[in-house]
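Board notes, transcribed. Complex of a protein with N-(iminomethyl)-L-glutamic acid.
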Amino acid sequence: MKILIKNIKELLQIRGAETIKVSGAEMAVLPKLENAWLLVEDNIIADFGTMEDVPQVNADTVIDATGKTVLPTWCDSHTHIVYAGNREQEFADRINGLSYEEIAARGGGILNSAKKLNETSEEELYEQSRVRLEEVMQLGSGAVEIKSGYGLTVEGEIKMLRVIKRLRENYPVAIKATFLGAHAFPSEFKEDHSGYIDLIINDMLPKIAEEKLADYIDAFCETGYFSVEETERIMQAGKEYGLHAKIHVNQFTAINGIEACVKHEALSVDHLEIVTDEDIEALKGTDTMPVALPTCSFFISIPYTPARKMIAAGLPIALATDFNPGTTPSGNMNLVVATACIKMKMTPEEAINAATLNGAYAMGLSATHGSITKGKRANLIITKPLSSYYQLPYAFGSNLIDSVIIEGNLI
Ligand code: NIG
Ligand code: FE
């Protein structure tokens, strides 16, 4: 199967295979070709160049992209799209004045979703989740990380991870699975934190490892959830099963969790709405990717990750949706990119780098995803005709995607 895309107005994010992430000032540069062509062979980017040298090939499909932009599909490195039902009532409660923390304290929040999930069959959970996955593919996401964490029981966590596995088998989008048993303490363990962590380590992890259900391990390191010491226990246990850490940290408070994550060589630290100078120091020169989730900040009205300060310090940033029923019921990476530009003052170049190559890095996929590179997966967004790619974040509420190609398939 060959697809030739020609007359591309702007072909964005062209990189050599050696560039696996971009940091600091490098983020301001988005390498591109104008008046370009790109050839897809099966599921791979076979070649590309400018229209002066367009090859004579017998393509099965020829796409004329006159006036259009082509870029790699979004790499959404942080989602919770496998969940049951919704939390619309809590949304209304927050409008009426309750905070996210107050709702959680009265048994809402994560525990509310866990109750719903444990009452939902695996089949029904799959059905609800696949609808969300299909939606985000249409919105241009070609690689997605999905977390467990609404089971909080051995059966519930395994049910979620099995659903993620089925999604991976049935859809062309690249999926990484993260085990987030340490998302909240179930009420029966409210006074017995080490009892629940023992359950995670001694009961959940061995079963998950045996069925090969997870690629990464996560914990919600936060005041009122998992302390830094508890998070370290989880990271250490994950490591023993070959699961690198991707940790929820610094969402509401800074408790020196980032330093601990770096010590444990976490692949990513995610949220970072509250970041101290010490946190930035801890991240400098490390392989840990900071991941910002601006539509979470938008939805629950909390501060935005201080991107300018972090980029000025030479750090990389990835952007992701956090798609979940409580804090971000949206998987729209286009809106994430726009919100990062508008509210975090990231430039369009920085935001697109953060949502493609750095997102791929944050889920261990930058060898195959996140840029226009010969030999990488043919995962492409073809936009509608645009005045320039600045229109993507500028016209923030519009759907500017014409078509999406994932693994060489037109979606
Ligand atoms: O990333 N902060 C922790 N976990 C999720 C929200 C969970 C929920 O409210 O259901 C998040 O924002
Ligand atoms: Fe999250």
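The two ends are 15 Å apart (CA to CA). The chain has two domains: 2-72+372-410, 75-361.
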